[in-house]
Design goal:
Radius of gyration: 32 Å
Distance between the termini: 60 Å
Shape: elongated
Largest sheet: 6 strands, antiparallel
Number of strands: 56
Mean pLDDT: 91
Structural class: mainly beta
CATH class of one domain: Mainly Beta
CATH topology of one domain: Jelly Rolls
Low-confidence stretches: 1-33
């Protein structure tokens, strides 16, 4: 009886080096479909696939037409004409269960009955080199909810020395019944049905294709060495690695018995961490713009940064993408297994920087950024176009001059750089001990305005220096938060008993307007918009009316009775424009252009989640997002320009873990 269809064989072209296999037609008409029906008494059915000599997996859907039949599906070297020709075999047996050949007989690790008309997805994970295989069964066409039927069974005795497999063979060996086989595929890789992959010593590099990233690649992986010490590496590369020089990133279970990471031309680690044969979890954050990466060892409650912004391997210092996860055990005996691995490029992220930088947007998506020690100019792609070895709070004037302000003890230092990052002057002023810079701005005359808050005594100080570096004035006031505008005005917020007060002042220290709101609310963020309106937000301690009606925390369930974040926009005259509760726990930062407002928040349930929300000028939500490098953490500072958002956030790798600071440039 001729088969009714053809099975298309999928070939992973890069892994196999063979391109896509040809479809072979066994029908009289020449038409190809995805299924074949094998009846009782029919001759052997065979379908070739590209020759496999190492690790691969084969998958198919099988639907028996009756229970208690005897249908066999196996893998062989060349076409099968007898059962002894098959090396790896799955059988729908006459007793009504599914079993697997192990050497000289059939058995199974679990009892799985089969039923007429039910589809079973079958996966065989095969290693031709060791002559062993595992079998997984899932109920339903396309289902991947596997039960492991057989773990590491030996090939059929007659095929114990076979060196290659290149054929799927099947036969119904009973007087009645049939079985339908659909969607057979064969892929050469080291993954197994449980989402793991294993590589052994002396078997070379094992590449696994992952989503290709050109900006940021995030990899989460759990790894386990079979013995210690071992020499095993988990890396990422642009193409399947053939040697160590192909790896851009590399985490190593080193022969020394400790974990280390490749940094340019050698291995090291920021702290000594011996390893054992238990599970080790890692997160790798690779930035393809700066060609650096960080590696975190994930320990619930106490994750550690094993490598902080290490350089890509020297030979891969300019690689443009990462699309493969590579495993290798080098020289020493043993195996390395990885499980639960996931790689992704964060959606919309142009680039990232580790740390909590102060960011000032520039034209065309460029930006100034300071990590506190160094100030850099970044182009729209995140590449450094200029650098200066001093950092702090930043501002830029209309001529492109850059101002840097930082406090050391009770001394405020302000420095001016020209557009070429050449220092023009540096001046110092005495400030209150414990003061920190929270705002900077320049006006059209080139005067730089620096706003400082001293949290311990609830005071605000504003220092003004002219374009030539001469001290102009200092203003002191009670306050918990301060914002500075590009025309020299300032806004100060403070909680005065049961009243929240907001006031604005001109460049000479004269009041413009003041507002008082009955109620208690913290102000964690305050800024001006381009129209000189004042935006602020924080945490509500109770109901309050900012002019648009009473707002209060939003109920979120019994474990967390309220989420009390809020934000408000007042016009340039102090009149109410927008006020609302956000539904999140608190507001950390606000930024605004003429058409958009971005609010950075944290959503707290049992755990913490960073969030940013984008509003139009009327307060209508038009977008937003969560932590781009992982779902847990807290929101932070934000900077905004047309088309791009720079968002600082704190990332938790494990939901009850320590936090690590990052900034992401996000295209809107």
């Amino acid at each position: 009886m001729k088969s009714l269809a053809v099975l298309a064989i999928a070939c992973a072209a890069l892994a196999l080096g063979c391109g896509m296999a040809d479809e072979l037609d066994g029908t009289a008409s020449g038409e190809a479909t995805a299924c074949v029906v094998l009846g009782a008494g029919a001759p052997w059915w065979n379908q070739t696939f590209p020759e496999q000599t190492t690790m691969f997996h084969a998958e198919l859907d099988a639907t028996p037409a009756a229970a208690n039949s005897d249908a066999v599906i196996g893998l062989s070297d060349g076409a099968a004409s007898a059962f002894a020709k098959l090396a790896a075999i799955v059988r729908f047996n006459a007793a009504g269960t599914i079993d697997v050949r192990a050497g000289s007989g059939y058995r199974a690790d679990v009892a799985i009955p089969y039923y007429a008309g039910t589809t079973y997805h079958v996966r065989l994970d095969v290693d031709v080199r060791t002559h062993r295989y595992s079998v997984w069964i899932a109920v339903g066409a396309g289902s991947r909810f596997y039960t492991r039927l057989a773990n590491n069974y030996a090939f059929r005795t007659e095929q114990a020395a076979v060196t290659r497999l290149s054929n799927v063979g099947a036969k119904v060996d009973s007087a009645s019944g049939s079985i339908t086989l659909c969607d057979v595929s064969v892929v050469a890789d080291v993954t197994t049905g449980d989402g793991c992959a294993t590589v052994a010593a002396s078997t070379g590099f094992a590449p696994i294709q992952i989503p290709d990233a050109t900006r940021v690649q995030v990899l989460d992986v759990s790894a386990r060495a079979s013995t210690t010490p071992i020499d095993a590496v988990i890396g990422m590369s642009a193409a399947p690695a053939r040697g160590f020089s192909d790896l851009a990133t590399a985490v190593r279970f080193a022969p020394s018995g400790a974990l280390d990471v490749r940094d340019g031309d050698g291995y090291r680690a920021d702290y000594a961490q011996p390893y054992g044969t238990g599970e080790w979890r890692f997160r790798v954050l690779a930035d393809l713009i700066s060609h650096t990466y960080s590696v975190f060892q994930v320990v619930p409650g106490d994750s550690q940064e094993l490598a902080h912004q290490y350089r890509f391997r020297t030979q891969q210092a300019t690689v443009g993408h990462l699309g493969y996860l590579d495993l290798v055990v080098d020289a020493t005996p043993g195996t390395l297994q990885i499980c639960n691995f996931r790689a992704f490029q964060p959606t919309g992220v142009a680039y990232t920087r580790e740390g909590d930088p102060w960011v000032v947007p520039l034209a065309g998506g460029a930006a100034l950024a300071s990590d506190g020690a160094t100030t850099t100019r970044l182009d729209a792609s995140g590449r450094v176009s200029a650098s200066y070895p001093r950092g702090g709070a930043l501002a830029v004037d209309v001529l492109g001059d850059v101002f840097i302000a930082a406090v050391d003890g009770n001394t405020l230092a302000i420095e001016k750089l020209d557009p070429a990052f050449v220092s023009r002057w540096r001046t110092t002023q005495t400030v209150l001990a414990g003061a920190r810079v929270v705002a900077m701005a320049t006006d059209p005359a080139g005067t730089v305005h620096v706003g400082l808050v001293t949290p311990q005594d609830g005071s605000v100080q504003i220092v003004r220096i002219n374009a030539g570096g001469t001290f102009l004035s200092a203003m002191y006031a009670s306050g918990n938060a301060v914002a500075l505008d590009t025309d020299g005005r300032s806004a100060i917020a403070w909680q005065d008993g049961d009243t929240l007060r907001i006031s604005t002042w001109d460049a000479n220290g004269a009041p413009i307007w003041q507002r008082a709101f009955a109620g208690q609310a913290s102000v964690g963020a305050i800024t001006f918009d381009p129209g000189h309106g004042v935006l602020f937000g924080g945490f509500l301690w109770g109901p309050i009316d900012f002019g648009g009606g009473t707002i209060r925390g939003v109920p979120q369930g019994s474990e967390n009775p309220t989420q009390d974040g809020y934000w408000v926009k007042l016009g340039s005259d102090g009149g109410h424009v927008v006020s609302m509760a956000t539904g999140y726990d608190t507001t950390h930062a606000i930024a605004a252009t003429a058409s958009r407002i971005v609010v950075s928040s944290t959503w707290r349930t049992q755990l913490f989640y960073p969030r940013y929300t984008i509003y139009d000028a009327t307060g209508t939500i038009v977008g937003g997002g969560d932590g781009p490098l992982g779902e847990h953490g807290h929101g932070g500072r934000v900077a905004l320009a047309d088309g791009r958002l720079w968002w600082n956030f704190r990332m938790m790798i494990h939901p009850v873990d320590r936090e690590f600071s990052y900034m992401a440039a996000i295209d809107l």
